[in-house]
């Protein structure tokens, strides 16, 4: 019974500590730690080894200090210290937030405190999403001159939350169309590889690090709409009737509907348009050329490459060379010619992905 918890003892102990603190003269030289070298601003030293990324700004919104954690978080984006907060983070806050931050610092709105969200990105670096907390660095004043800006990096947390929901949808669709094996994983890898290559080509400046990361996840969703396709059509051995074929084609629209809540429209574009063809003979809307969204044109090559390489109940598997030949033959009819050109240059990488993520004894009658 020796270790029994007595709340009154804890309260008593706490009172003693508080009394001790009141009695301590904080200005006493004996209380100072000689090893601590203060840097301007004086408050910043406590943040030096903090795991929280922290900036200190003055009333003119100039960044007067960044701690090492903050430096690491935003490395590759820009230099922070010495710059104006809004010059650096202007685009990552919405206009409303910028007004709020101004009113917080200059006019003491909400007790000189603000919290919000910041999203920073460059072409080379994926979006960094942070919760931001701004509050005075001095507590014993009615008119603070310096403010702490504390960042909480929620990039991975939010991405994981979002993607796990859509992964569950994908898993649900696999319960119906469960013999696609590693097909969807490989389509992710091919699409990512092709996008990485396009990133360096003129004319594809809108492909950035986020695009590459997103297509590497969303390509796998291209057939998620099959969750709405009746089983007897989805699993039918042999050719589909005209009516069955038109029901099958609905998986593109169903997929777009299912993915319409995904924040990046790329998800919807891939599901809706991965069966469109460059010459306008595809479905569901017979889009022509670059009316077909780029992610869907990329996934079309990835999907067909993989489908050709797989053995199905109604066809044999093609080898890599024959598959590449077939895709080249369909340049300008089925596929975007400039994408086929890039594909041809890196076709060996497609083969390597196929070999590395090969299925063991799978079949899929219709795709
Ligand atoms: Fe499809
Ligand atoms: Fe597919």
Number of strands: 5
| CATH architect. name of the largest domain | Orthogonal Bundle
The percent range for strand residues is: 5-15%
Summing up helix and strand content along with how strands pair, one would put the structural category as alpha+beta
Mean pLDDT equals: 87
State the domain count: 2
Low-confidence stretches: 1-8, 20-39, 362-367
What does this structure look like?
Helices cover 46% and strands 9% of the residues. The chain has 367 residues and is α+β, with helices and mostly antiparallel strands. It is built from 16 helices and 5 strands. It has helices at 7-23, 68-73, 85-89, 95-107, 109-112, 155-176, 183-199, 209-218, 231-234, 242-249, 251-258, 266-273, 294-309, 320-329, 337-345, 347-356, and strands at 54-58, 63-66, 114-120, 128-136, 146-153. The longest helix has 22 residues, at 155-176. The protein folds into 2 domains: 22-153, PAS domain (Beta-Lactamase, 2-Layer Sandwich), CATH 3.30.450; 157-356, Orthogonal Bundle (Hypothetical protein af1432), CATH 1.10.3210.10. Strands 2-1-5-4-3 form a 5-stranded antiparallel beta sheet, sandwiched between helices. Helix 12 (266-273) packs across helix 13 (294-309) and helix 13 packs across helix 14 (320-329). The model is unreliable at 1-8, 20-39 and 362-367 (pLDDT under 50). The site of one fe (ii) ion has 5 residues, from loops. It holds the Pfam family HD_5. Residues 158-359 form the HD-GYP domain. This is HD-GYP domain-containing protein.
Task: Jot down its keywords.
2 domains, 16 helices, HD-GYP domain-containing protein, binds fe (ii) ion, elongated, Hypothetical protein af1432, alpha+beta, disordered C terminus, 367 residues, disordered N terminus, Cyclic_di-GMP/3'3'-cGAMP_PDE
């Amino acid at each position: 019974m020796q270790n029994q918890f007595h709340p009154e003892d804890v309260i008593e102990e706490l009172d003693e500590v508080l009394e001790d603190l009141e009695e301590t003269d904080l200005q006493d030289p004996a209380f100072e730690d000689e090893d601590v070298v203060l840097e301007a601003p004086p408050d910043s030293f406590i943040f030096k080894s903090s795991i929280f990324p922290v900036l200190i700004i003055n009333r003119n919104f100039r960044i007067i200090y960044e701690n090492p954690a903050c430096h690491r978080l935003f490395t590759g984006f820009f230099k922070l210290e010495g710059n104006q907060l809004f010059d650096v983070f202007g685009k990552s806050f919405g206009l409303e937030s910028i007004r709020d931050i101004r009113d917080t610092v200059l006019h003491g709105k909400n007790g000189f405190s603000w919290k919000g969200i910041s999203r920073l990105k460059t072409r080379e670096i994926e979006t960094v999403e942070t919760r931001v907390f701004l509050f005075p660095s001095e507590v014993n004043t009615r008119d603070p001159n310096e403010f702490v800006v504390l960042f909480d990096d929620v990039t991975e947390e939010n991405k994981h939350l979002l993607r796990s929901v859509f992964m569950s949808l994908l898993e649900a669709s696999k319960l119906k169309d469960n013999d696609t094996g590693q097909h969807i994983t490989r389509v992710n890898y091919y699409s990512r590889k092709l996008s990485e290559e396009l990133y360096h080509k003129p004319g594809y400046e809108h492909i950035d690090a986020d695009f590459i990361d997103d297509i590497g996840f969303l390509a796998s969703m291209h057939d998620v709409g099959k969750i709405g396709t009746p089983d007897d059509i989805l699993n039918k051995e042999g050719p589909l009737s005209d009516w069955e074929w038109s029901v099958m084609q609905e998986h593109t629209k169903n997929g777009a509907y299912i993915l319409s809540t995904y924040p990046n429209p790329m998800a919807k574009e891939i599901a809706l348009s991965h069966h469109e063809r460059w010459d306008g003979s595809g479905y569901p809307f017979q889009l022509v050329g670059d009316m077909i969204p780029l992610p869907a044109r990329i996934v079309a090559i990835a999907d067909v490459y993989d489908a050709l390489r797989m053995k199905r109940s109604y066809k044999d598997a093609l080898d890599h060379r024959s598959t590449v030949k077939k895709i080249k033959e369909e340049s300008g009819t089925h596929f975007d010619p400039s994408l086929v050109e890039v594909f041809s240059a890196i076709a060996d990488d497609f083969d390597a992905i196929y070999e590395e993520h090969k299925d063991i004894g799978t079949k899929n009658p219709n795709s």
